[in-house]
Amino acid sequence: MTDPLSLDRHDVPVEGDLRLPKPPGVIRQFWYRHPRLTDALVAAAYVVPVLTLDLFVVLSDSVVAERGLLPFGIVLVLLGGLALLFRRRRPWTVLVVSWVVVLLCVPAFGSNDQFISIFALYALAVYGSVRAAWIGYAASCVVGFAASYLVITLDPTARAGEPVANGISFAVVLLIAVLVGINIGNRRRYVVALIDRAAQLARERDQQAQLAAAAERSRIAREMHDIVSHGLTVMVTLADGSAASVATRPDSATDAMRQVAETGRQALVDMRRMLGLLDDGTPGQSEAPELAPQPGVAEIAALVDGFRTAGLAVRLTTRGSPPADPAEQLTIYRLVQESLTNVLRHSAGATAVNVDVAYGAQGVTIEVGNDGANAPSPGSTNGGHGIVGMRERVALYGGTIDSGPRPGGGWTVLATLAHDAPSAAINNESSAQNDG
Q: CA-CA distance, 117 to 143, in Å (whole number)?
């Protein structure tokens, strides 16, 4: 069984790169790594001197020798030494055994030997608690006085003042043992508490790293959805248009197919850049992903032009000064992109699409409406994740998003972003300004 207060670095569980420094000195390291040997030496340090002294007393005192309790006394001392082997795990049991040994050894050896109580009290103070140590000290003093009076009862030649003098002297010795044990025990408990706290901090650090990695992967998944959804939708729409006009307008069909190729190439570049963020530095990957800023509000006009090329009659209106935060600009861009992609996918018959972006002091309002036939909310019937991704984006800025049919026909997406959103939420998206 591992000592709960062991300072051996092999006995203390650690997490991550936490390591317990080695105890100073070769000798202390040896004792820390061999606690059973230490306990055996402590037991021997009690048994050998006590048996030697008590045997000398018995052989020199005929009254004590006539009692014939020498074998009984030897067994008691050996029992006390055996109990000291368990002083780390059962300090209270060892102390109780010491009281029994002290009291029963008086008739066997005719003396009051409380050396075992010194070892037991010290162990209780180190491996128990401060409160337990003082309680054990008080009880041991009572046992010591009782043993002293038992000596004078069995030996009428003893002086009347000896019990009190012996009791006081042993009480002082026991007090020293308790104070030393409390000091060492408190230091050990403090060090173990520091080690436990360090291990807890290491676990929390690893958990925070895992949460941060999960959040980053979620962000990358949203980006990948927007890139793939936008690119494929535009490509499919242009390909359908070129197939329909190849016989009557071959030049227009050729331009549309070139636009398909260009859209596909751009989508591949964006995908390669985003997937580069997941690179863990595996050897053999010599090509680094291209680094480029993520799109912002300045690229919304080019985005709208691309949808016009795909056949949407898009009208863009912007008001106010855009925010300076690149992450918030990326969110605005992705919201416009996803909304127009859904129009192209679900309302291809729309003849007018209005994109209204209003930058205000308190936040940003984005409204994308079209006059196409009412269609189910994107992502609700075909398993898409467009609206879900947009909700996650606006949630980072304390905003809201509504998507639904509008009176008179058509569909409207209305999103708002708040500038005074909690900084912690905004920081979760701040790394999106650059890929890599």
A: 10
Q: Let me know: does 330 contact 294? Beta carbons within 8 Å.
A: yes
Examine residue 373 and state whether it is found in any structural domain, yes or no: yes
* pLDDT band with cut points at 50, 70 and 90 for residue 377: very low
**Mean of all residue pLDDT scores within the chain:** 76
CA distances from 285 to 260, 279, 282, 288, 289 (A): 30, 9, 6, 7, 10
Q: Which residues pair with 293 in a beta bridge?
A: 434
Would you state the pLDDT for residue 14?
43
202 within 8 A of 16, measured Cβ to Cβ: yes
CB 8, CB 33: distance < 8 Å: yes
What is the mean pLDDT of the segment spanning 98-107? 85
280 falls within a domain:
no
- 48 is a domain residue: yes
Q: What is the mean pLDDT of residues 412-426?
A: 67
Q: What is the DSSP string of 237-282?
A: HHHHHHHHHTTT-HHHHHHHHHHHHHHHHHHHHHHHHHHHTT----
My answer on whether 69 and 202 are in the same domain is: yes
- Closest C-alpha among 32, 5, 19 to residue 199: 19
How much is the pLDDT for 379? Answer: 39
Q: Domain of residue 109: give its range.
A: 26-206
DSSP type of residue 49: H
CATH label of the domain that carries residue 331? 3.30.565.10
Query: Is 359 domain-assigned?
Result: yes
What average pLDDT does the segment 235-239 reach? 78
Please count the structural domains in the chain: 2
The alpha-helical segments, DSSP class H, found in 347-416 are: 386-395
What is the Cβ-side half-sphere exposure of residue 405, based on CA atoms within 13 angstroms? 8
Instruction: Write out pLDDT tens, residues 171-188.
Output: 899 999 999 999 988 988
Residue 178 to residues 32, 37, 39, 173, Cα–Cα distance (Å):
21, 23, 18, 9
| Spatial separation of the C-alpha atoms in residues 429 and 433, rounded to whole Å | 8
